[in-house]
């Protein structure tokens, strides 16, 4: 392990990071569980990266747990190889041994066409579930209920899935109809199957539909920079692994990389933190410009408002 990556953030840095994204609760995704004990910022880590570890890191900042649903359904087309009881046992272990668990995603069923139909999409092979959107929604509700029955003390979050705004509204109603779960009373509701729609107007329509349905706080899965800049007003929480993709596309390590012999910095903490800080700055500037435009529009003639 390289010495430069052993540095722990200071208490003041931990305090600053909670405010750098303003009202947005931003979780930076990572493939490296060791980042939990080094980064000092809120992270989003998958069960697939933690489940086989004999020794777990101790988190120095809160983190969210991804169930690894997209990869699971892409590769196998079902959750059959991951029984809910086993998943629950692991989440309890993460809560106790890693600590600072914010919430855990359920074993939900995404509704992207690639996940359902299968085949080659964007250069990747998908097994295909061969089910319908309503079936995926139903199975997501059933799993949410089972997880809560098995471990009511764990911080589970429900996920809404679909393809159209009406799909998401129907899924919200289905939670109530089948399980008596009122999504408008949930502390945080995750919206799935939008990560590949971020640069479209449809993503905004879906998020607005969920908000108008009465959901108080929304988490957007897998947001990238452009998606956050475009739709941040409709979400309260988001996660992103885009920094890793960005580093991989760069094709070479940065000048300050502590491991200059590697191909890229796709799993390096210094790149994660630098990218995260840059994203926070972009978001602040974007919000500031939006506020200025709003003020200018209120003057009636496009001029700056009087001081």
List keywords for this structure.
307 residues; 43% helix; 11 helices
How would you portray this structure in words?
- The chain has eleven helices and ten strands.
- By secondary structure, it is of the alpha/beta class.
- Strand 7 (158-160), helix 7 and strand 8 form a beta-alpha-beta unit.
- Helix 6 (133-150) packs across helix 7 and helix 7 (165-179) runs parallel beside helix 8 (201-212).
- It starts with 10 loop residues before the first helix and ends in an 8-residue tail after the last helix.
> DSSP helix count?
11
Order of helices and strands: HEEHEHHEHEEHEHEHEHEHH
Q: What is the total tally of β strands?
A: 10
Q: Measured on Cα atoms, how large is the radius of gyration? A: 20 Å
Oligomer: single chain
Q: What would the principal axes of the Cα set say about the shape?
A: globular
Estimate what percentage of residues fall within beta strands.
Answer: 5-15%
Q: Give helix % range.
A: 40-55%
Largest sheet: 8 strands, parallel
Please report the distance between the alpha carbons of the first and last residues.
55 Å
Average pLDDT rating: 90
Biggest sheet: strands side by side, in what order? 4-3-2-1-10-9-8-7
Low-confidence stretches: 1-17
Pairing-aware structural class of the strands and helices?
alpha/beta
